Amino acid sequence: MSWSIKVPSSTSNLGAGFDSIGLALNLYLELHVTEADQWEFIASSACLEGIPTGKNNLVYEIAEQVATQYGRPDQMPACRVEMKSEIPLARGLGSSATAIIAGIELANILLDLQLTDDDKLQIATDIEGHPDNVAPSLLGGCVVGHYDGKVSYTQIPVKGVTFVAVIPSFELKTKDARAVLPDQFTFKESVQASSVANVSVAAICQGDWETLGEMMEKDPFHQPYRKALIAHYDELYSYLNEGAYGVFLSGAGPTMIAVVDDKKVFSLVKKWKAEYPEYQWLPLQVENTGSFVEQIREEIKK
């Protein structure tokens, strides 16, 4: 028996939406799962070179954690898992979140747990600690989430804009990016920060990308601190803002994303590529369907 699992990537921390606002994007992690004699994970794309091939693979570790949570740690049948990904690792595009969702989906199908989307999201957020990457990868679209032991969320439709990812050649680990953040804000700073985040959400709801861009510039939570880890940040930020609605640091970085009008994206990206050929430029669309699981019916040969 075989299955196909497809999980979209995500971008998060849209301006002041730190740990709470994320978007699913049309880059994917894909798994082809077939029952086998032993567990084996096979990388079939460059983005996954060097990943663990046995039970120390993150996808398996998450699946085993879910199986244990539901009291069935020894009941998952061994599988051969071919993995293909378009998502660069440690670049702020949710590669680890896609693996978490894939692991939950894997346990769900192998053990027939019949988990709902809310069940899956609760498990994923408990593992990740915040919903901004896992929620859009599971559900699709733009998701605004809150987590205090229980996850709450709402989805917002997004259209008319392209998210242009500017991907450098170096990695930035999330733990390193979190280490530079402040431990606390004053009450006055917190009120200011929450007002920026509130207007950001309202702007997304209205499709008011210019206002969202203004709020992205006022983000007090992470961009002012993390940009020090990215040597080209200030130069590229100013350059991209000349043509984009706004620019934000995707996830923990180092990828930067420019929010661009669909009608202007082709000409802008052509110009940007010519000016900065050392970066990878990916015009991405919002993926509205979230993770997808399909059982593959094997044809019976006569």
TrEMBL record:
Record: residues binding ATP: 88-98
Alphabetized Pfam families for the sequence: GHMP_kinases_C, GHMP_kinases_N
Subcellular location: Cytoplasm
GO CC annotations, alphabetized: cytoplasm
Pathway(s): Amino-acid biosynthesis; L-threonine biosynthesis; L-threonine from L-aspartate: step 4/5
GO terms (BP aspect): threonine biosynthetic process
Catalytic activity: L-homoserine + ATP = O-phospho-L-homoserine + ADP + H(+)
PANTHER family: HOMOSERINE KINASE, HOMOSERINE/4-DIPHOSPHOCYTIDYL-2-C-METHYL-D-ERYTHRITOL KINASE
HAMAP family given in the database record: Homoser_kinase
Record family assignment: Belongs to the GHMP kinase family. Homoserine kinase subfamily.
Protein name per the record: Homoserine kinase
Species assigned in the record: Gracilibacillus thailandensis
Lineage: Bacteria, Bacillati, Bacillota, Bacilli, Bacillales
